[in-house]
UniProtKB/TrEMBL annotation:
Membrane topology, record value: Multi-pass membrane protein
Residue intervals passing through the bilayer: 23-43, 73-96, 116-136, 210-234, 296-319, 325-343
One matching Pfam family: PAP2
Keyword annotations: Membrane, Transmembrane, Transmembrane helix
Protein name (database record): Phosphatidic acid phosphatase type 2/haloperoxidase domain-containing protein
Residue segments, region Disordered: 252-288, 406-441
Record carries keyword Lipid metabolism: no
Cellular localization per UniProt: Membrane
Chief location bin: membrane
InterPro entries: PAP-like (IPR043216), PAP2/HPO (IPR000326), PAP2/HPO_sf (IPR036938)
Domain Phosphatidic acid phosphatase type 2/haloperoxidase positions: 122-348
UniProt source species: Knufia obscura
Family: Belongs to the PA-phosphatase related phosphoesterase family.
């Protein structure tokens, strides 16, 4: 109970110090995300006079029997929305800020990071699913493509073929003939507006798009947080020729044949950057030691399970006779595109971001940037204006270090605070650059 009370006190303190302008900015973002989802719901339920493509009663591709969903809509919502939301929340609250955080880091800063990562995780997921829902339902209404079971559920009035004929090559109305006859949806004896809308809502597949949007986003999130990816040369890793080093039988100690380092203009044989890239023994590590493959179980949990589930949901729409192949493929492309775009909108690249989300917008750029600025991050941080000014005064006067014990104040980089405590007077201690720890020279 004491721990929970302390956490609540920390969160309350952080909330009081946070800029109302930034808070309102992200509340507006959430309102717009929900609004996008609401538009999709309007397309799904509120539009009755949707397009309905003419069809042929002799078309075998829409003559399949009706079957119940293997994956129902409620199950789809649980799998693609609720489960990813729960997993991303738990990971954000438990694994953030990660093992590189100093034990001296203030709890308020730790909790601010947790809440921020949780917020960005849900905003990305919400944006992916909302966009997918709106795009999919809108395209369904515009296309009006009949489903594979269309004829059976439509229950056409065969005595009125001549009345509802809208196209075809001949005048022979004998259905046993080879001449195609196109009729309008008015021939259907099924008159329920919702059912008729579903009959002509084949393209694109909503199950496919929604499952890929939620589950691919979850996969990207897990890969980012647990560094799951195909090994590659790190961005700052020096590429060494294969013949530069050889190994003894233990494969532990590199034997250098030649260095080739030019003399430094300051009298040193190597530059500080070269010393940073080299190992502690003075040798640059070989390429094979630049990275390693992650454990297989992480690959299964982060990639195989969510992507495999999305694929199964897609295939179920095929063998349930609810969608044509192109409908399923198109839905998967829509969902995958929105998932990747929404993930990158709020998160750093998987390979280079060390699992972090992008930072918050600054107080002065909460709603727009303006000409002459190159981004939404500013130097003043995201604390309230008065608190930031008070913190800056304390920092500049050197009279107090309390300013950094809650949240980063004006002009203070909170990234360094996470790695090394309060960030004051630490010229010789590790600092964080690009989320990679190095020591200052």
């Amino acid at each position: 109970m004491a721990g929970a009370s302390q956490s609540a006190k920390v969160l309350a303190t952080g909330a009081m110090r946070m800029s109302k302008r930034i808070l309102l900015s992200y509340i507006l973002d959430w309102i717009l995300i929900l609004g996008i989802a609401g538009i999709g719901g309007g397309f799904n339920k509120g539009v009755q006079n949707t397009n309905k493509r003419p069809f042929s009663l002799q078309d075998p591709s829409i003559s399949y029997p009706y079957r119940e969903d293997t994956v129902s809509v409620p199950v789809l919502a649980v799998v693609a929305l609720l489960i990813p939301a729960a997993i991303t929340m738990v990971i954000s609250l438990i694994f953030i800020p990660g093992p590189t955080a100093s034990k001296a880091t203030p709890k308020s800063l730790i909790w601010r990071r947790k809440i921020w990562e949780w917020n960005t995780a849900w905003m990305g997921l919400g944006l992916a699913l909302a966009l997918t829902f709106m795009i999919t339902e809108g395209l369904k209404d515009l296309a009006g493509k009949p489903r594979p079971y269309a004829i059976g559920v439509c229950n056409p009035d065969l005595s009125a073929i001549d009345r509802y004929r809208v196209g075809g090559l001949g005048q022979n109305f004998d259905l046993s003939g080879a001449t195609p006859i196109l009729v309008s949806s008015d021939i259907c004896q099924e008159r329920d507006p919702g059912t008729l809308r579903e009959i002509f809502a084949s393209w694109p597949s909503g199950h496919s798009s929604f499952s890929w949007a939620g589950l691919l986003y979850l996969s990207l999130f897990l890969c980012a947080k647990f560094a799951v990816g195909i090994p590659y040369f790190l961005p700052n890793q020096k590429t060494i020729h294969a013949n530069t080093y050889e190994y003894d039988n233990s494969l532990r100690h590199p034997q250098q044949h030649h260095t080739g380092h030019p003399a430094s203009p300051h009298g040193s044989s190597t530059s500080s950057a070269t010393r940073h890239e080299e190992g502690s023994n003075g040798f640059t590590p070989p390429p094979r030691n630049s990275t390693a493959a992650p454990p297989i179980y992480l690959l299964i949990l982060a990639v195989v399970v969510p992507i495999g589930t999305a694929i199964f949901i897609c295939v179920s729409r095929w063998f349930d006779f609810h969608h044509h192949g192109i409908d399923i493929f198109s839905g998967a492309v829509i969902g995958a595109t929105t998932a990747y775009s929404s993930f990158r909108y709020y998160h750093m690249p998987i390979r280079q971001g060390s699992g972090w989300a992008w930072g918050a917008r600054s107080r002065g750029r909460a709603f727009w940037v303006g000409v002459g600025r190159d981004g939404y991050v500013g130097e003043e941080g995201w604390t309230a204006k008065k608190a930031a000014e008070r913190d800056m005064h304390d920092i500049e006067s050197g009279s107090s270090t309390a300013a950094l014990k809650d949240v980063a104040g004006a002009g203070v980089s909170d990234r360094g605070d996470v790695e090394g405590g309060n960030g004051i007077g630490r010229q010789e201690e590790p600092v964080e650059t690009g989320y990679t720890i190095r020591s200052q020279g």
